[in-house]
Amino acid sequence: MTSDSGANGAAPRGNVILALEGVTAGYGGGDILKEVSFTVAEREIMCIVGPNGAGKSTLLATISGVLRPRRGAIAFHGDSLVGLAPRQVLAKGIVMVPQAHSLFGEMTVRENVEMGAYTVRDAAIVRRRYGEVEELFPLVRERAHDKAGSLSGGQQRLVELARSLMLDPALIVLDEPSIGLDPPTRKTVFQMIRLMNEQGRTILLVEQNARAGLKLSTHGLVLENGKVRLTGTGREILEHPEIGALYLGGAVSGSAPAT
Asked: pTM of this prediction?
């Protein structure tokens, strides 16, 4: 199944900003990703789900420049990313928020957020963006002078999301943002991801909580054994009976399955 419409009957997809075509990659001569092809369009949330070992982490490492594909093409706004170092990928406008907490615990929340703009030379731009981040994430203002290490896991995740905006990225890549969070905190993190998207951010999300991630997303992709098993809107994948049984604890009821 492939779909060009948004979730719940939304408008057709916008301009493609990230495109993978036939990407094959792995470690030590072994291929983990096998001919992976998909696109991410401007202003959408694309959620990638799949079982452990499906190749999700390898996929993100390949997009971010940590791993070079053996075959295939990766283009961002039409420019090739293959062969670029992570710093060069970052300079293109792709910011990744890793699965593991990445704040500097002995630094303040403000210092951690400002570090997100470490490549920006114009202090006025940094101040303006920091003010915008404070408006979107009240926690940043409320805990600005506290050490980041004093925050809860969920609060640290919110600060990491805030920090990702300091470079005004064209694409934000989130690796398992809800991992280790209790349900109320996970809900808050997902609400902020949705709000970031509503304010115009394009988001590529890998999420171990497949049902929650697909409900949040406009489009989704199921990765299995290093191959693309299914693509479509988040709702289409949620309602697909086979995918629901395999990954989601049963398909969503009340709707006809997509084909």
From this structure: 0.88
Residue range 112-133, pLDDT digits in tens: 999 999 999 999 999 999 999 9
Q: What is the pLDDT of residues 179-238, one digit of tens each?
A: 989 999 999 999 999 999 999 999 999 998 889 999 999 999 999 999 999 999 999 998
User: What secondary structure does DSSP assign to 59-78, as a single string?
Assistant: HHHHHHTSS--SEEEEEETT
Spatial CA neighbour of 158 closest among 202, 213, 109? 109
* Beta-strand pair 45-49/219-224: parallel
Q: Which long-range contacts (CB under 8 A, 24 or more apart) does 234-237 make?
A: 234/7, 234/45, 234/47, 235/7, 235/8, 236/1, 236/3, 236/7, 237/49
Q: In the 8-state DSSP scheme, what is residue 120? A: -
Q: Are the C-beta atoms of residues 231 and 1 closer than 8 Å to each other? A: yes
CA distance 181 to 127: 31
